[in-house]
Design a protein that fits this description.
- Helix content is about 30%, strand content about 15%.
- By secondary structure, the chain is of the alpha/beta class.
- It has one domain (about 25-30, about 40-165): Rossmann fold.
- α5 (about 115-120) links the parallel β4 (about 110-115) and β5.
- It starts with a helix and ends in a 15-residue tail after the last helix.
Length: about 180
């Protein structure tokens, strides 16, 4: 672990991540004009996940991917959230919890489905115990596929969502050069 930490602290600055312009344009058309500000709070709801997507979400907060450098952070309360991020198959038992979380969020709010299970039910597609992913419960604004999606893919998807809402994503802070 310490080797990895030292490698990232002593290496050159990473290239600033930017979202794919084609993805940004399609999201802009789908979501509409500027709705949100530059700093966004994310409320995560696990709706029947195997926790692989949660591990990748937590990796977006480590020093390699550092989601906070783009003005994105997780919040424990839906009342302070701008984005509802859903992982898991959206089991029928979690339907009400998802609806309550979305209802508690102030407008405008966006819904993001992360992982194959949240996108369409994944390997459990067609099971009578699930709603068919987050889209079976709520209208989804952005789907990030993968089983599980990499932290980089999650960060790029969220950056595309921010840029599609009119606010350019903040550039990453440059790392200091080693002495």
């Amino acid at each position: 672990m310490w080797k990895t930490v030292a490698k990232h602290l002593l290496s050159r600055a990473a290239e600033a991540r930017t979202a794919d312009p084609a993805v940004v344009q399609s999201l802009r058309e789908k979501v509409g004009a500027s709705k949100l500000g530059r700093s966004l709070a994310i409320r995560h709801v696990s709706a029947g996940s195997c926790n692989a997507c949660e591990l990748e979400l937590r990796a977006t907060q480590n020093l390699v991917h550092d989601l906070t450098q783009y003005g994105l952070s997780f919040t424990p309360s839906p009342r302070h959230a701008d984005i509802l991020l859903v992982t898991g198959v959206s089991g029928k038992n979690m339907r009400e919890a998802l609806l309550q979380a979305r209802a508690a969020m102030p407008e405008p709010a966006l819904v993001v489905a992360v992982g194959d299970c949240a996108v369409d039910g994944g390997v459990f597609k067609g099971s009578p115990a699930i709603c068919g992913g987050a889209g079976g419960v709520l209208p989804v604004d952005l789907m990030i596929a993968g089983c599980p999606p990499s932290p980089e893919r999650i960060v790029l998807g969220l950056l595309a969502l921010v840029e599609a809402n009119g606010a350019p994503a903040r550039a990453a802070m440059p790392r200091r050069e080693p002495r």
